[in-house]
Amino acid sequence: MLIAIRNLDAFYAAPDRLALEGVSISVNQNEIVALIGPNGAGKSTVLKAIFKEVQIKDGTILFEGADITQLSTNRLARLGIGFIPEGRKLFGSLTVEENLDMGGYILTDPKKVIANKEKVFELFPVLSKTRNKVAKKLSGGEQQMLAFGRALMFNPKLLLMDEPSLGLAPKIVAMIFDMIKTINNLGVSILLVEQNVKKALEIAHRAYVLNLGRVAFEGTPKEILGSNDLKKTYLGG
How far is CA 163 from CA 44, 61, 83, 168, in A? Predict the structure, then answer.
């Protein structure tokens, strides 16, 4: 098991108003695990709890068997955990290449930064062609590729992805999910929050259905899609 979240309680403002309650989730080596459910279910909050963007009241987060519950985001990155937030959060005034350099900030060997950048350009050829273009001038799909590339710069073991297809055209959405599969095939495990349930379940090995800050169901995509009750109650039919 790569990461295990055990009985997690988390909150944003007040500890008596929990955003997550008793949440237990795991991701194994080389898995894609999807977090799905209605709006406000707590899916993104799970990712934010790992990266200390919400406050943890109780529970434990283990990574490769070690307790990381209280570790800083910088320490998490150095352990091999990357976070691609909703909206991508690129450095808009920096070029593609400069954004990638920022992604490799924890690497101490400049040669490794150069080598990893070339790997990213090989994986996403459009980024090589636009390497001197500022990020805010890229299309939505190109920006998402850059967000993926930046996260890959430090050789992560686990990537947390929050709504990677949000706001993109259907044709680009299909390409983004192909990219997620490609990244997984490189040996990177993925914990994916995604409103596009159909596409998420097409690529996921397992999935958790969240509702009102709790895990309502855990199973394979086939089990979830085969349950009319689940689809009707939590996934809008």
Answer: 8, 22, 11, 10
Q: Which domains are present in the chain?
A: 3-234 (3.40.50.300)
Q: Is 134 exposed, middle or buried (0-12, 13-18, 19+ CB in 10 A)?
A: middle
Which structure tokens are listed for 94? 């920096």
Indicate the pairing of strand 55-63 with strand 206-211. Answer: unpaired
Place of tokens 């109650």: 233
Over the chain (237 residues), the average pLDDT of each successive run of 10 is: 98 94 98 95 96 96 97 94 89 94 91 95 96 95 94 96 92 93 96 94 97 96 90 74
CB 153 within 8 A of CB 113: yes
Q: What CA–CA distance (Å, rounded) separates 94 from 133? A: 8
Q: How many CB atoms lie within 10 A of CB 216?
A: 15
Q: pTM of the entire structure?
A: 0.94
